[in-house]
Specification:
By secondary structure, the chain is mainly alpha-helical. It is about 70% helix and about 5% strand.
């Protein structure tokens, strides 16, 4: 069964064009705006967001509806991805006795799995359809949430079981790649940045919400005897809502195709690997520190691990992920005005200075000073994250040697940069594994975290120099351009 979605403005644009419709209007539509056809399974044929008539009549409404459900599903993906960052802090209260190394493995393994899954997930939308894959990827979130609920309900659960369930939380990290890939197909070029920014920010906020909500719900339900398992069960109804919402409200686009040639070409571009390194420093820092922040607070300032508020309790660790998420769009906006390289370089400089300040502040023993420094670190990583992401299409366009936005080289550059975004986002997510493991090694070797932060200072210094040398004062193919 097919349904024609009229691209011309009408009183009710969701209704099919009837056989009795005005012939003049039909001819006008055919001449200036391609029609949309919806098949069973909510597949849409003829989608072209660059067609102004189609976009104004129906495309914008369809795209925004799909974006809304995509944001919600990706938000839950980040929630699940970061669940163990806060659950680890609550495990001792539930009767578990874990070493520092075991705790860091539970925190870091979801990032390792999630980063790896981002690569295959980026190809799922063209293979199965954006709506279909959103339903499947949301359904997969039930596995780690229910698994967590069952595993943490019994203190006798072996560590290898906890580690396996934590690894399954990586399903949530993979969702970012497929969600961003799907939304790219729905919006015209002039609105992609806005749409992708909303999609990314909505997802990133999931980390903050997980760290805020879990301690509150666990404390409020303690009297009912639900235990720590509620940290998993509480998300199951929302995941079901996301599945039903995607099933009823999203669409599959027939023209959403994987550009394997562009991916292969992007991989051969040396700048892809340099940008991936910078992205590890920005997004990797954000997701890595978001994961370990609750544990760092619990280790260094146990009195502030959770703060009682009436019958509830909160962890202020959620503030880090919150300010980092909110800062990301401003990084892109500042990059538009001053250049991505300048903003990224300033972000790395700020992160290096703040990481050094953390080392100097730890002996003082002031929680509020520690919190303030970390919030600045999160803001800097969020701004750097947005700036680095903004640099990618600019660098691929300039490196192509395109003479104008409409020539063949510019079009090829756009295809390659779109492919590069997925690859770079996958590599950058490995920072969520590296940062906890560096902290783990530091604690194992020295009994503290100071040496880890000194390593972070050195890494940010290297990234600062690379950004300055390669992109702030570009040479070769990039010479004479503001990156």
């Amino acid at each position: 069964m097919t349904e024609t979605l009229d691209a011309a403005p009408s009183a009710n644009p969701t209704q099919p064009l009837s056989s009795t419709a005005d012939a003049t209007a039909a001819r006008h539509t055919a001449a200036i705006g391609a029609s949309l056809t919806q098949r069973s399974g909510r597949w849409i044929d003829g989608w072209n967001p660059e067609d102004a008539i189609q976009w104004a009549a129906q495309g914008r409404a369809i795209a925004r509806r799909n974006l809304g459900w995509s944001i919600f599903a990706e938000f839950l993906g980040f929630v699940v991805w970061q669940l163990w960052s806060i659950v680890v802090v609550l495990l001792p209260g539930a009767g578990f006795h874990l070493s520092t190394s075991e705790s860091f493995w539970l925190i870091s393994l979801p990032s390792l799995v999630g980063a790896t899954l981002r690569i295959p997930y980026s190809f799922m939308v063209p293979l199965f359809g954006g709506r279909n894959w959103t339903i499947v990827s949301a359904a997969l979130l039930l596995v780690p949430t229910i698994g967590l609920a069952l595993a943490v309900g019994n203190p006798a659960t072996p560590f290898w079981v906890l580690l396996t369930v934590a690894g399954l939380a990586g399903f949530g990290g993979g969702n970012f790649a497929s969600s961003m890939s799907n939304i790219t197909f729905f919006f015209p070029q002039r609105e992609k940045g806005w749409a992708l920014g909303l999609n990314a920010a909505g997802g990133n906020l999931g980390a903050a919400v997980a760290q805020l909500a879990v301690p509150v719900v666990v404390a409020l339900t303690a009297g009912a005897g639900l235990g720590l398992g509620i940290a998993g069960w509480m998300w199951v109804p929302l995941i079901v809502v996301a599945m039903v919402g995607a099933w009823r409200g999203m669409n599959n686009l027939a023209n959403a195709k994987t550009d394997f040639a562009a991916s292969a070409s992007a991989i051969r571009e040396p700048h892809l690997w340099l940008l991936a390194l910078l992205y590890i420093g920005t997004f990797g820092s954000f997701i890595g520190f978001a994961g370990v922040f609750p544990k760092l607070i619990a280790d260094q300032f146990p009195a502030f691990a959770t703060i009682p508020i009436g019958p509830a309790a909160i962890s202020l660790a959620f503030l880090g992920a919150l300010v980092g998420s909110l800062a990301r769009p401003y990084g892109g906006r500042l990059a538009d005005r001053f250049g991505g390289a300048a903003i990224a370089a300033l972000s790395f400089a700020a992160m290096g200075v703040v990481a050094l300040a953390v080392v100097l502040a730890l002996p003082i023993g002031s929680f509020w000073l520690f919190l303030a420094f970390f919030l600045v670190l999160f803001v800097a990583s969020g701004i750097g994250n947005g700036a680095t992401y903004r640099m990618i299409p600019t660098i691929f366009l300039v490196a192509s040697g395109a003479s104008g936005p409409d020539d063949r080289a510019a079009q090829d550059a756009q295809r390659r940069s779109a492919a590069a975004l997925g690859i770079i986002s996958a590599i950058g997510a490995y920072g969520g594994f590296l940062i906890p493991q560096v902290l783990n090694l530091s604690f194992t070797a020295t009994g503290g975290y100071e040496s880890a932060f000194l390593w972070f200072v050195a890494c940010y210094a290297v990234l600062f120099v690379v950004t300055l040398a390669v992109y702030l004062k570009p040479r070769g193919r990039l010479a004479g351009h503001r990156i």
